[in-house]
Amino acid sequence: MTGPVRYVLRGVAPLGGTPTDLLLSGGVIAAIGADAVNEALAPDVSDPARAPGRATADNSEVVELDGSGLVALPGLVDLHTHLREPGREDAETIESGTRAAALGGFTAVHAMANTTPVADTAGVVEQVWRLGRDAGWVDVHPVGAVSVALAGEHLAELGAMAASAARVRVFSDDGHCVADPVLMRRALEYVKAFDGVIAQHAQEPRLTEGAQMHEGVVSAELGLAGWPAVAEEAIIARDVLLAEHVGSRLHVCHLSTAGSVDLIRWAKARGIAVTAEVTPHHLLLTDELARGYDPVYKVNPPLRTAADVEAVRAGLADGTIDIVATDHAPHTREDKDCEWAAAAHGMTGLETALSVVQHTMVDTGRLTWADVARVMSSAPAAIGRSIDSDRPQGRPIAVGEPANLTLVDPAARWTVVPELQGTASVNSPFRGRELPGRVVATFLRGRATVLDGHAVSPESEDDGGARPAGGARPEATGSRLPRPATAMSAS
């Protein structure tokens, strides 16, 4: 191929609605509908029934993909990703983590600050941002630390990070709570100047010293120190009041308890500018899984009770919880394949997130695909302010909008095999589970990063190629995949 690729997606269903055709050209959605697509292509070919794949007058390539049975979503945006680089490249790199993100249907991720060195200066966030651009799989938006070295004592260089090339707008000490109320107030006040947001890891440290899992019946039976729900809820209650007092934006990371849902609901009713996220694992898994002492289920905040799972599902369904964020936390085998007490907290999640949301929320009738687009694309982009950046994310599927798209086959089912995923770590809590919905294609500004469930090398952007780059998940059953009409037939 000698020019850029223009993709024609035939028969896809935007947001699960009426199937139609989409033309992706010049980095944007150029046309919607069969007639509009054919008309847009007509100047390039003399025969409207041309063979797909034929070069056009502007030296571009038109590739048609059969998207029948597929749902088209705006590219997913993750507000909470741990990419580990710099410092822990043995667990994940920006290259491997963002490839995993693309395979999961994401076109943008927000990279958390707990790297080594910590992303608490303009220099470090710019390094992460540039490595993300070099990798090319998704847009990487660094999250800046709230405090120097995540120590909770002095404010980090918030203004310098905001003014840097990375244009940081989200700040978090995730992994550590900003426990000092004076420091939290100052942070909330400071970010108002550039429309930033403080994303709080809500964990009162004095109430969770030595905690190993959720405090409840299971922890008592197992003899493990408990992490009480009130440790999360106390910080949320304090911080929504601080946000109201200051008039600033607060975001609550990985909300996990029924009481936390009630607090966010109360705060929103008062008009406080608070948003909240829930992770896929807190939508599905419970503390009962700790009975086997398998450290893959050790996470912070911990897996909660079935009643908490029901509460966060209800909160996501009624809009109290704004978004789903993965909290993708890769770890080396050495950090997880050990006794429970010594194991690191965290789970991978980028490549399973959409399937878990379909399983828990869509297939149960609690969310529509349009709702999924809101909680996994437009709302996180709005909170992180990437929706109006120089490379907008979370935009609607409409003519002229950036061609950031995810195609998912909701009828497919696949079994999670962590070793076959794109992430460099294998600490998935969903190992061996059969999940619904398969991401079969992802487009970043009209360039395919995933086709037929396989990663496509970003190096092929200029020549329009589609080179496999590894990180393909196992074949799904019942899958209706988009395939170039010239070379493949649907399976």
Structure, explained:
The chain has 13 helices and 19 strands. The chain has 491 residues and is α/β, with parallel strands linked by helices. Strands 1, 2, 3, 4, 5, 16, 17, 18 and 19 form a nine-stranded mixed beta sheet that branches. Helix 2 (94-103) packs across helix 3, helix 7 (229-246) runs parallel beside helix 8 (258-269) and helix 8 (258-269) packs parallel to helix 10.
- Total strands: the figure is 19
Helix content: 25-40%
Structural class: alpha/beta
Globally, the shape reads globular
| Proportion of residues in β-strands | 15-25%
**Poorly predicted sequence stretches spanning 5 or more consecutive residues:** 48-55, 460-468, 478-491
Q: Any chance you could write out the topology, listing elements then pairs?
A:
Layout: E1 5-14, E2 20-25, E3 28-32, H1 34-41, E4 61-66, E5 71-74, E6 76-81, H2 94-103, E7 106-111, H3 122-135, E8 139-142, H4 158-163, E9 170-171, H5 181-191, E10 197-200, E11 213-214, H6 217-222, E12 226-227, H7 229-246, E13 250-252, H8 258-269, E14 274-278, H9 280-284, H10 306-318, E15 323-324, H11 333-336, H12 353-362, H13 369-384, E16 405-415, E17 434-444, E18 447-451, E19 454-455
Parallel strand pairs: 1-4, 1-5, 6-7, 7-8, 9-10, 10-13, 11-12, 13-14, 14-15
Antiparallel strand pairs: 1-2, 2-3, 5-16, 16-17, 17-18, 18-19
Keywords:
491 residues; alpha/beta; nine-stranded mixed beta sheet; 13 helices
Summarize the structure.
This protein has 491 residues and is of the alpha/beta class.
